[in-house]
Amino acid sequence: MMNQIENLYQKSKKEEKLIIGLMSGTSMDGLDIALSSFSGSGAETKIKLLKFKTADYTDNFRKQVKSIFSKREVDLEMVCLMNEQVALTHAKLINEAILEWGYKNEAIDFIASHGQTIYHAPKSLHQRADLPNGTLQIGDGDHIAVNTGIITLSDFRQKHIAAGGEGAPLAVYGDYLIFSKKDEDRIMLNIGGIANYTYLPGDLDASKVFSTDVGPGNTLMDQYVQKHFEGLYYDKDAAISQSGKVNEALLQQLLQNDFFEADFPKTTGPELFSLDYLNHAQSTSDTNDLSKEDVMATLCHFSAQGIVESIQRALDQLSKPVLYLSGGGMHNPLLLSLLKRDLPEVIFKTTSDLEINPDAKEAVLFALLANETICGSQIYFGEREGVPSVCMGKISLPK
């Protein structure tokens, strides 16, 4: 039997690697599973997305994760147990996807697992000067490796924090390698639970590249729907939001947070933009009697305005800005119409125009991070605070 380290070494030298990337976001609608082929590394990386699916979670699994998600006080035993359970669930879904796609597990070289974020605590949120940035993703990589038989890289965000970052967003690394193009200034906007974008200059100068969270994407809308509309997990086609009217008093109160004025890059999460945040804004603005539809309309405008104002801060650097959308929020017609209305100078496209399925993009980006680590390379972004030039991901061997 080939030694496990020798096996890892031989796979790292392959001209073409098959890597499965995983992403499970704050919306928890399911596990994004993307199978891609990779050749080369760094600026020479070539990627082809071969297969993609979103594997649905069961209602019970969602309930278990939500019981420990983005809360300061939780059942510690449940955190411990769900670290294993998330990994076992993900491994099962991976095995099913590989079988469905007609592959054998032995043909897959690596798995890149983001895990499930249950708490994100940058200093800007926890405000404790004597403590560092922190983040926690569960779904242990060893369990995935053992139960799939595939070398697994996981826990990417810890290296980012260890090297001086905040653990998010990590899209800057993959966006730069996959999507940069000479003579076209690009904004790669991903609207997940939290919205973030990467700025890619057309002169390909890595020192100018940055990625930042901009505020809530879907998270507050999803949380509100799940609480007030039984059986729904999100506002499909913005049906609820479009039936309501925006309330300016509530909207302006929602926008009153220091996060929106902070310099780039910055990061946030549902730990800040929670239903408690909404409840406080409603109490302060005396809008507790709004209809649920009006609240949803206002939340959609809130997400849109946070995105718009952040992008406008970057537009002075761009000659012909082209914005490429990805993430679940791009399917929200009201949100998209607001972005296009308020950013008339921007050309809107999706990553489909760049041959990457927009729903698969985040999973593919983590597969790319794994490829960089396996190849032993690091993406150099200069000596800038918040964007460390490091390899990320812990390696778990299957035996």
From TrEMBL:
<keyword id="KW-0418">Kinase</keyword>
<keyword id="KW-0547">Nucleotide-binding</keyword>
<keyword id="KW-0119">Carbohydrate metabolism</keyword>
<dbReference type="InterPro" id="IPR043129">
    <property type="entry name" value="ATPase_NBD"/>
</dbReference>
<comment type="pathway">
    <text>Cell wall biogenesis; peptidoglycan recycling.</text>
</comment>
<comment type="similarity">
    <text>Belongs to the anhydro-N-acetylmuramic acid kinase family.</text>
</comment>
<keyword id="KW-0808">Transferase</keyword>
<dbReference type="Pfam" id="PF03702">
    <property type="entry name" value="AnmK"/>
</dbReference>
<comment type="pathway">
    <text>Amino-sugar metabolism; 1,6-anhydro-N-acetylmuramate degradation.</text>
</comment>
<dbReference type="GO" id="GO:0016301">
    <property type="term" value="F:kinase activity"/>
</dbReference>
<comment type="function">
    <text>Catalyzes the specific phosphorylation of 1,6-anhydro-N-acetylmuramic acid (anhMurNAc) with the simultaneous cleavage of the 1,6-anhydro ring, generating MurNAc-6-P. Is required for the utilization of anhMurNAc either imported from the medium or derived from its own cell wall murein, and thus plays a role in cell wall recycling.</text>
</comment>
<protein>
    <recommendedName>
        <fullName>Anhydro-N-acetylmuramic acid kinase</fullName>
        <ecNumber>2.7.1.170</ecNumber>
    </recommendedName>
</protein>
<dbReference type="InterPro" id="IPR005338">
    <property type="entry name" value="Anhydro_N_Ac-Mur_kinase"/>
</dbReference>
<feature type="binding site">
    <location>
        <begin position="25"/>
        <end position="32"/>
    </location>
    <ligand>
        <name>ATP</name>
    </ligand>
</feature>
<keyword id="KW-0067">ATP-binding</keyword>
